[in-house]
Amino acid sequence: MQILYVEDSPILRQSVSTGLKRAGYKVECADNGPDGLDLAMVHEFDAIILDVMLPGMNGFEILRRLREEGNETEVLLLTARSGIEDRVEGLDLGADDYLVKPFAFEELLARLRVLMRRRFGRTVDDLHLGNLRIDFAARRLFVVEKEVSLRPREFDIFEYLAQRSGKVVSRTQLIEHVYDHAKSLSSNAIDSAICNVRKHLTGAGANVTITTVPKRGYVLDPPR
Amino acid sequence: MVKPQQRPSIQRNLVTALTTGLMILFGLSALGIYLLMQHSLHTQLDRQLTRTAEDFIAETHVLADGRIESEFHNFNFDDFRPGDRAKGSFYELRDGSGALILRSRSLGPDDSLPFGSEGAERSGFEKFELSDGLKVRALLTSFPLARKGEETDGGTRAYLTIADSTSDLSRTFLILALTLAFTAVLLSLAIYFLVSRMVKRACRPIVEIAELTAGLGPDQLDSRLPCDDVPEELLPLIEKFNEFIGRLDGAIKRERRFSIDIAHEMRTPVAELRTLLEVAGDAPRDPDSNPTEIFRTGVGVAERLSSIIEVLTAIHWGETRTLPMKRGPVVLSEVLADSLGNLAAASRNRIESPPAGDETFGIQSEPALLRTVLDNLIGNAIAHSPPDSGIMIQSTANSLSIRNEAPLLCEEDLASIREPLWQKDSSRTKAQHFGLGLALVDAYLRVIGGTLRHTLDGGILTTTLELPR
Predict the structure, then answer these.
(1) Longest distance between any two alpha carbons in chain B, whole Å
(2) pLDDT (mean) for B321-332
(3) Which among B279, B300, B428 has the least Cβ separation from residue A18?
(4) Which candidate, A97, A92, A50, A43, places its Cα nearest to that of A71?
(5) B426 to A82: CB separation less than 8 angstroms, yes or no
(6) Weakly modelled stretches of chain A, pLDDT under 70
């Protein structure tokens, strides 16, 4: 899952992005309003964590412009402003959630999971596909209650495909949402990771398959 | 049971005072009328008695044989006949020795009228009672007797007493008194009713203002009481009240702004510290984590929090004048030199400070507080002006002027610039500046004395500090 975090406090930016990365999210950061808006407009994120009091342009203004442009990415406002009127203004502008500083990092992760579930139309953290059960909160995969051990990157790829099961996901989408822009990828990194996931699934007796769609990408087929 | 003390009421006091005043005025008027009427009727009665006495005397003569004859007595007027004594009149005529000569038939056998004597010890008008208790008013007089058709010889005198019953007069007085008293009671009620209505109407603006004031809640302090159609006497009160509300509104807004700012100033570092520690503690064996760096960052955040608290405490001490003081002679130029030396690295040769003529004269001040004041003023000029711009500082023995570029400031900012935690940048991104410097300067100047002024002209901010000599 790819997250944009716009925050002017360098310490908070560093800590939160580190924590999010450890939780399996791919994180892009911006330290001011205009840069945050540019990133949000150019790239497709699964969620945006937005500070309100930002230099250059405040979070409310960024949110307003995003919604005006038709961008419906889930937005979580993260701010020191705790007044009711601030919360109401943020939510009225189209924010999906509002978290006041200081916050427990676990709560931030939980709220992000809620946003992810809402984005993909789920109501719980567990997803059942055939004889598979995916626990997104714990980042664990089970085949008939037997755990399948995936590497973090492999789980990221599988999670992304599982969220969109039945739909073709392009190689570019996978790269953008699973890998950091900064890191260069070898041409077959995705293929290699997909291959490993297929092996794990087959080995565990899973009844779902990841199919390659020539020149388009991959699709996770649910059992018929 | 103790009766609660009644609260003073303007309306009640006015009604009481006006009603009492008007009732006293009316009472005095009624008394005046009564006395005037009494005097007038008595005078009228006395004139009547005098006329009767004159008629009697004119018709009374000494006969040749020495007897005294009165044609008046012979006329036998109705008033002097026996009958209704309450409406009757009476007379007695006595000779010089006091022997009774004539008396009216209206007098009973037991009645006796007093008479005057030579020397006029008893003469004039008198009140007395007849044998049956009938109250009469009498004229006691003496006169010289003369033969009919002749002038008096002045030798023989007679005593005449003419009296009239005062029953009618007393009744008239009683009716008058009762009428006046009854009128007084009715008028008092009418006065009370009218005065109450009038005072209530006159006090209506006060009640309306009280109702409007009672309706002013904490969220309506931006509204003001209307001054139109307000009575002249209440206008200064309303104007002062509106001014007070304005000041209160401003103070509450400043307080709210301060609360929001302090919340932000405290929330952000607390969030930084908490997240830093939570994320570090969540994966202690993460090869990418650097415990030393995390520790250093955490200490930095804690120091920033401490700094905010220390400055806020110092401001509180300054505002409550509870700062420890060591007042003594201070040379401003020396304190300025110390401050400039301390800030030399930060200023990077941007400050120009020519020496002043009378700079060696000392002033009475507190060196440590004054030094903090100068550090903050100069530090602000360095921090909030463009990095390549110059700063001009001029000083005299007891004043200091700092001129620096302030392209982001506008005239309206000068009103708020000294409020605690005010920052031009609403995002409050600069972690090293909290917006407490000028508030601290303000608080310290309350202790050591002195004034601080800011003027903005063409993007140049001039800060002028004047200290007492």
Answers:
(1) 169
(2) 81
(3) B279
(4) A43
(5) no
(6) 123, 180-187, 224
Taking the CA atoms of chain A, what radius of gyration do you get in angstroms?
A: 18
Kindly state whether A209 is in contact with chain B, defined as any CB-CB distance less than 8 angstroms: no
List the structure tokens of A83: 């007044």
Q: State pLDDT tens for residues A143-170.
A: 888 888 888 888 888 888 888 888 898 8
Rounded to the nearest integer, the mean pLDDT of chain B is 84
Give me the CATH topology for the region A126-221: Arc Repressor Mutant, subunit A (1.10.10)
The one-letter amino acid code at A80 reads A
Amino acid identity at A186: S
Distance separating alpha carbons of residues B322 and B313, to the nearest angstrom = 11
pLDDT category of residue B430 using cuts at 50, 70 and 90? low
Which residue blocks in B89-166 are alpha helix, DSSP H? none
pLDDT at B426: 67
User: Residue B32: is its pLDDT beyond 90?
Assistant: yes
Q: CB within 8 A of B34, min separation 6: which ones?
A: B173, B176, B177, B180
Quick check: A94 contacting B, CB < 8 Å? no
pLDDT of residue B31: 92
B275 touches chain A (CB under 8 A): yes
Option in A15, A80, A106 nearest B268 (CB): A80
Partners of residue B275 in chain A, C-beta under 8 Å: 12, 15-16, 19, 102-103, 105
**Amino acid identity of B353?**
S
Q: Is B289 on the interface with A (CB under 8 A)?
A: yes
Length of chain A, please?
A: 224
pLDDT tens track for A127-143 = 888 888 888 878 889 98
Beta B157-165 vs A97-100: how paired, if at all?
A: unpaired
How many of the other CB atoms lie within 10 Å of CB of A125?
A: 15
Determine contact: A188 vs chain B, CB below 8 A.
no
Measure CB to CB from residue A11 to each of B276, B282, B286 and give the nearest one: B276
* Residue B438 binned pLDDT confidence (cut-offs 50, 70, 90): confident
Specify the higher pLDDT residue, B257 or B339.
B339
The domain limits of chain A are 2-119, 126-221
User: What global pTM score does this model have?
Assistant: 0.57
B163 reaches A (C-beta below 8 A): no
Residue A177: other Cβ atoms inside 10 A: 21
The distance of Cα B186 from the centroid of its chain, to the nearest Å, equals 34
The fraction of chain B above a pLDDT of 90, given in percent, is: 18
| Residue-level length of chain B | 469
Which DSSP letter does residue A70 get?
A: T
A84 Cβ under 8 Å from any chain B Cβ: no
Q: How far is A64 from chain B (nearest CA, A)?
A: 17
Beta partners for A147? A142
Closest CA to B357 of B401, B403, B394: B394
DSSP classification of residue A148: E
Task: Check: CB of residue B102 under 8 Å from CB of residue B159.
Answer: no
CATH of domain A2-119: 3.40.50.2300
B271 with A53: Cβ contact below 8 A: no
Closest CA to B14 of B196, B181, B275: B196
Using a CB-CB cut-off of 8 Å, the residues of chain B touching A8 are 427, 429
Helix B367-383 and helix B332-342: axis angle, to 10°?
50
Decide if B127 contacts B96 (C-beta within 8 A): no
